[in-house]
Design a protein that fits this description.
Length: 324
């Protein structure tokens, strides 16, 4: 168990001004839907064009004008392995700037609660599985996304530092792989699950008879529907007040082979699947230990099959406007 965990129900005022940074992204949009469904009536949003969070002066001006009581930091430069290894400077620099500006501006306004979102890639490449929160900073990172991970680790430490220096009950959450509506389905920058959905759906609609996936299909990964993630975020904001980041996941993993099968079934693909074993598999297993989250009273609810079927529907319906 993580030391200093604190569970204390502290409901948020439903009319409190809540700034969701990155509200058009997959996570930010799910959080906005969940907040609205739970009675929040004063959700503050700005598109990237309206407010570039790497612009420190503009970020401070926005906070001075709107004085958010609650802040969710879901704005970030996000991408899969290819984007991370091709543009490491953008990943470290933009993410550091976004989070430092938002957290500093929120300190100036003494925002009462803040949730910083990171990612499971903050943990050492060879961390024991399932990965517990206290394995942070105990070993070397996966080199392909170390720039991004270091930015996220800096965010966790900044949140912990604000807790110490200003006694504000801010927290951080580290989600596992997420998927769902508004995901990024682009060929070059997407994560594994939306990439599989796109590949199998394209094959089905074009009548292609063979789909080839990278690697052996043997690595095990964990996937959480973004609506579950949004529910976990509100739950943590209202119930958790501890310095440790909290892992957010299902606690269950699947082989990529199994996930590809579920996706193929969801899009009615009847052709063959091949595995290109000349391509790297990556780490054999990545599963978060979610004991701390469970102890706080939250568990994932959306089964992977249902979540994938719903995401396929969303992808097909929103093909024209989705990130493809
Ligand atoms: N997706 C996952 O599987 C996953 C897993 C673990 C953790 N997370 C974490 O969850 C958070 C959100 O991820 P996501 O998947 O929702 O990403 P996303 O869909 O790419 O959304 C990111 C959002 O941030 C905005 N943004 C980026 N740079 C900005 C800037 N300089 N100023 C203002 N807004 C900016 C983007 O706006 P534009 O699109 O207009 O640029 C977008 O709305 C990230 O911290 C990520 O690390 C995601």
């Amino acid at each position: 168990m993580v030391a200093n965990a604190l569970f204390a129900p502290r409901p948020l005022e439903r009319d409190a001004p809540v700034f969701v940074a990155g509200h058009r992204g997959m996570v930010g949009s799910a959080i906005c839907r969940h907040l609205a469904a739970n009675g929040f009536g004063n959700i503050l949003t700005r598109t990237h064009d309206e407010l570039d969070l790497t612009d420190r002066a503009a970020t401070f001006a926005f906070f001075r004008e709107t004085r958010p009581a609650v802040v969710v930091v879901a704005a970030a430069r996000v991408g899969g392995i290819l984007a991370n290894s091709t543009y490491p400077v953008d990943f470290i620099s933009e993410n550091l700037q976004i989070q430092v500006n938002v957290l500093d501006a929120a300190v100036e306004q003494r925002s009462e609660r803040l949730l910083f979102l990171g990612s499971s890639c903050i943990y050492p490449k060879f961390a024991d599985q399932p990965i517990t929160e206290d394995s942070l900073l105990t070993g070397a990172l996966e080199p392909t996304n170390d720039a991004y991970a270091i930015a996220k680790i800096a965010g966790i430490i900044q949140v912990q530092s604000v807790r110490r220096q200003y006694q504000l009950p801010w927290i951080s959450a580290m989600p596992t792989n997420l998927y769902g509506p508004h995901d990024n389905f682009s060929e070059n920058t997407s994560h594994v699950l939306p990439a599989l959905i796109r590949r199998y759906d394209d094959a089905t609609s074009s009548g292609q008879r063979v789909v080839t996936n990278w690697g052996s299909g043997a690595p095990r990964r964990e996937f959480l529907h973004v609506d579950d993630m949004a529910s976990a975020c509100l739950h943590l904001l209202e119930n958790y007040d501890g310095p440790s980041q909290v892992n957010v996941g299902t606690g269950v993993d699947h082989t990529i082979h199994e996930v590809a099968r579920i996706v193929a079934d969801a899009v009615d693909y009847t052709g063959e699947t091949r595995w290109d074993t000349s391509k790297p598999d990556g780490t054999p297993r990545k599963l978060l230990d979610v004991s701390l989250l469970r102890e706080s009273g939250w568990e994932a609810r959306i089964p992977l099959q249902d979540g994938i079927a719903e995401t396929v529907d969303w992808y097909r319906t929103h093909h024209a406007s989705a990130r493809v």
